[in-house]
Amino acid sequence: MNNVFKGAEALLDKGESSFDAAKHKLSQVMEAGSEQLIAGSEAIKGTAQDSADSIMQGANYLRTQPASQMLTDCRSLCKKYPIQAMTLAAVAGIFLGKSIWGSRQNQ
Questions:
Q1: For the CA atoms of the chain, what is the radius of gyration?
Q2: Which pTM does this prediction carry?
Q3: 9-47 pLDDT, tens per residue?
Q4: SS3 string of 23-91?
Q5: 13-23 b/e with 16+ CB inside 10 Å = b?
């Protein structure tokens, strides 16, 4: 009978050590996941802050610059990026045409 108890104790010890190892591994995985989540949230916070700063700079530009300076800036951007400017003009023309012709068809 003593051998049975010793065998049961050995089995319990082995199970307990396996459980402790699994518990340790799970805690490591959870800690790594937590660190990744924190890093991701900090990256999102940084991106959101950068976006808010850009919008704020745009609003400040619109508030402080005279129309003549905006027109000069627009011309220099069109000269610097002609393909993008033509694409933007085409898309704007399509939307403008749709809004004008779409409203006439509904009347």
A1: 33
A2: 0.48
A3: 766 677 777 777 777 888 888 888 888 888 888 888 888
A4: HHHHHHHHHHHHHHHHHHHHHHHHHHHHHHHHHHHHHHHHHHCCHHHHHHHHHHHHHHCHHHHHHHHHH
A5: eeeeeeeeeee
